[in-house]
Amino acid sequence: MPKRVRxxxxxxxxxxxLAVVGGCTPPxxxxxxxxxGAAEMLGDLRTVDPCTLTDPAAxxxxxxxxxxxxxxxxxxxxxxxxxxxSLAQLSVGELERVPPGPPSGPVRQHGALRLRHDAxxxxxxxxxxxxxxxxxxxxxxxxLSGDPGAGLCGVAQAGxxxxxxxxxxxxxxxxxxxxxxxxxxxxxxVLDTAVVAQVPGLADAEPVSAPARHQCRWGEPxxxxxxxxxxxxxxxxxxxxxxAAVEEVIAGRRTVLSVVGGDPSVPLCSAETAHRPFGDPASxxxxxxxxxxxxxxxxxxxxxxxxxxxxxxxxxxxxAA
Length: 321
Fold this sequence. Notes:
321 residues; alpha+beta; eight-stranded antiparallel sheet; seven-stranded antiparallel sheet; 15 strands; disordered N terminus
């Protein structure tokens, strides 16, 4: 979702921007009991520390795991070297609303929780944990290098089972964010929908918030639809990484505007600004406000103009840096 760890943040955003996956339950699948809701089992969803939901030692039977850099408030990343030398990335913790209708894979009981066994696709396998209120916790493994058949589902399964056990033991950890943290600010309340309506195709778009209230989107999650995603995240400070990116000051904040992927013909642009330190100050990590704008039919340069305007309207409404 690495050439550089910093690049991991945008590919996971692009999953929302470019893909929608569905499915059905096989005939005869056993009906399982409904677990409690996410907030009941996890506590304050805004402050969950996703890295307390996993442990490299718990993956020893599938590979050699090590913690990866922070790139989100919502999920924790580990890199897992598999026995054949392939390298996988395990993501644990992001909360999502489950679409109505049949589940996209068989559902298995794991104690008081349920695990959904999504059908693998090349280079990706997911084992989401399902809560009783229509919220799922994403646990997925993605291939970074090596053999696509190297056992990604085993990595995802091991990660999901450990996370489920942590949840059921009541051992989910929480960050203690200061009052000026972006983690405590709902992006849907910061980016004015009236400003979003000025982007072509989004005049009637309504905000859709993620369960932990670190992300908000406007528009349909389809590749040919105009859309905006605004996130409060964390990781390395925003950096100019290619020739289709520029650093400038917007509303008094240092901002990096970047055509996603570096290709100006791609109508996707991000605007990012750093906020306060995140985690251990020695790590150099920061909280980040990130806008991603898609305007199909236009260019990446056009998308950056919209991102620039949205940032100018949004950054003044953030807590003081």
